[in-house]
């Protein structure tokens, strides 16, 4: 996704060919939603007559934000902070996510073969202390996960698969760094070190690192960004000739490279699900798979092709089912000639249609307010993307880059998104392949007139609270028009007179039958 490179003018094609539409991350470093107005009869509604799904209030929708740690983009804000300050900054981000009715965070735990958690495989990240390999005195990841879960946010651990270091000098890396211990794995390209995707040992190492986190920590997902083979730089060659000669087996160089990436994706998918079946695995690829000029089945665009430039074939992963979701980074506005959002969102919807792979859209919150493209100077551009998404049922949600922009809320754009699209909470989209089952209905639901409480339900991660309209029409299984909260503890305050439903949710948001209680 975005890198530490300066953003170029979005109005130029160069912004599509130099990585300017992304920062380091996910690689490290683009009708008011009020309550239903349907007039309801006094009798309880039936699904056939009353409970027609309201597109403004989807029952299930992923709403997430990327939290980038590379170069201290989002968290922590700088190196060397006291632990208490690091914790406070993170909680502030989570509270901003909850305020916007988001339900997932994608936290960068491995920017470049380093770790923001205690690891025996890779050294501590410099973005905690300022010194590569220096122990920060605590393991942040249990806290990061627990605080997200406490607020009803799904936690996805975000990894960069192939970047080894933001430096070409091996001697500056800790002695325990895999690149120093295995210099034959390394390709120098530009001002960075990369692991060679063509080496089986590299794929084994990356898979082991990811699986280690899935096994030892209570994460809900594993996430890869858009950085596979490095984005092309003029006059530079990624020198993997020796590996190609050894492992190419008659393929063209480009086909071999794509095969290497496809192999890693399949290997990680299998390993993660073997470690814990409920953990989701997905990738946020560059927004253009291929252009029509390169492939008639490609998108009506004219920008850089991920398939050809960085050898990332998202279509192959979708067809093979080696990802649970794809999250293409559609960081361009409507009307942008080289990569129009109006062309790309429908194209990706078509790619997942009829299959089990979920589609979420990576949204460029970080571009809002940019003056190099008139579209991004308008507060409503981002919200308009979500309005367009409604026309394509395959779009299961959106994720915003990045957290500091979520907090800053440029041009009030997220306020508008919330008003027009997120006026109700939403449950997570269900992934049947990841297992899970609905818990029992909550028991002992009661009210003291100001607060609802109930007994903790075995197998429940959280609970959904609905308030029915005066008519008594119960549409809670159809959409979220009556959903008032998703809470992680067995209580809900600030109730007013009316009829409430409470359901229990497992970690994947399979929903129980409701328990009913009347207040007042």
TrEMBL record:
SUPFAM superfamilies: (Trans)glycosidases (SSF51445). Keywords: Hydrolase, Signal. It comes from the Bacteria. The keyword Hydrolase applies. Residues 1-23 form the signal peptide. Gene3D superfamilies: Glycosidases. Residues 61-377 form the Glycosyl hydrolase-like domain. GO terms for molecular function: hydrolase activity. This is Glycoside hydrolase family 10 protein.
